[in-house]
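Technical note accompanying the year-one report. For the benefit of new consortium partners, we illustrate the data format agreed upon in the data management plan: each record pairs a sequence with a structure-token string. No post-processing was applied to the example shown here.
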Amino acid sequence: MKNWAKIQYDYESIYCIVDLHAITVYQPPDELRRKIVELAGMLLAIGIDAKHSALVVQSSVPAHAELAWLLTCVTPLGWLQRMTQFKAKSEAQDTIGDGVLQYPVLMAADILIYQAAIVPVGEDQQQHLELTRDIAQRFNSLYGETFVMPETHLPSFGARIMGLDEPGKKMSKSATGANHAISLLDPANVMRKKIMRATTDSQPGVNFQAPGAGVENLLNIFQAFTEWPGDRMQAHFEGMRYGDLKKQVAEAVVSHLEPIQRNFQEITSDPDYVPRILREGAERVTPIANDTVRKVKQAMGVFT
């Protein structure tokens, strides 16, 4: 999100809250509505400029779902079954909704519908971006040049953050461990407590030659907030005891998130402000989305 705010003026930027993706697993409806507005408020608090960038909820632009179906019809089943996320979730659950299988096609539609040249995502989404490119290329080869081939834009630091309690797994808001993830709205004392309980390793202090996964994750979190270069990180932290490392990571996180939390409280104090921004965002991008769907349907021979 920090990266999104930083690069937004370099492009015509569109930021999408993907509620249709969220419902691939059950979401309590009232909580989902509240979380949509909360996330939009957080994006604004971090620095997304609604006068320059479009902030939109996925379901408010029906063309996303329409394009997803059109792309599903040209996407081989084997491509979807090989996706890491689908394999992991299908192995962990007895039954799984078809939405989880089709999730990457909807993500491809989210990108291709705006003819996006750059997609600023984390490292964990690279496989989805590769699939998006494959789908676009397959469509273009079948029906003629229609889609721009999108490129990935990874952040310089913090492209993949792992769980504090399970540093071998990506940090996830859906994980059940109390000390797994830090919420952007956690109180300062809660953030500090979670970081101080983070998993490290059996070494006495930070070893840049062979850091344990937990230690490397803490260093990545610190670097993501401070953007210190690698040589400064090593000079500062090499040999540092883990208790001191955790305290410094906690202070970096708290000092950067507390101003954002204050911005968030101010932005959301008016209950009508964020929904208005989202409606304006949808109005701004709907003509672009509809034009892409019209071109796709025309290319495929579907009645328009």
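Partners are asked to follow this layout when depositing records. DSSP finds 13 helices and four strands in the chain.
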